[in-house]
Amino acid sequence: MYRYPVEVVSDMYLSKVGGFSYELGKREIGINAKALEVNTSIIPNETFATLRTFDDRRPYFFKQRFVVVAVEENMDCYKMTANGEVVLPDEIRDRMDVKVGEDVIVNTVESFRVDGDYSNVARAMLWHLESRIRRN
Q1: Looking at residue 51, what DSSP letter applies?
Q2: Average pLDDT over the chain, rounded to whole?
Q3: Full-model pTM
């Protein structure tokens, strides 16, 4: 029914940029409410996501995080996300090197897997570092 977002890997979705809207805050991205319900496990107004284009080479932890917002039919930006495309806030148009119609990856893995508790991530990095030291 809705073309986007398409789940590529668990909690990672492929979509296109539908446009920029004044209705979204600078830390929000919007996706069609029904497309979210049908195609994803994203919980509107709770799930955090990072965006990545295929040319983006920045490390994950340097990417800006956004709250995913459901775009309803009564909103002006609804026509930009008719097929489930991502709508970005107007405020970041100049800072983000993204064009309308460009493919993006919506990554919600951290929101569901890490959920703000980085102790396991730190432990895994420390374990990896210690095992490299032992090998040398």
Answers
A1: E
A2: 86
A3: 0.77
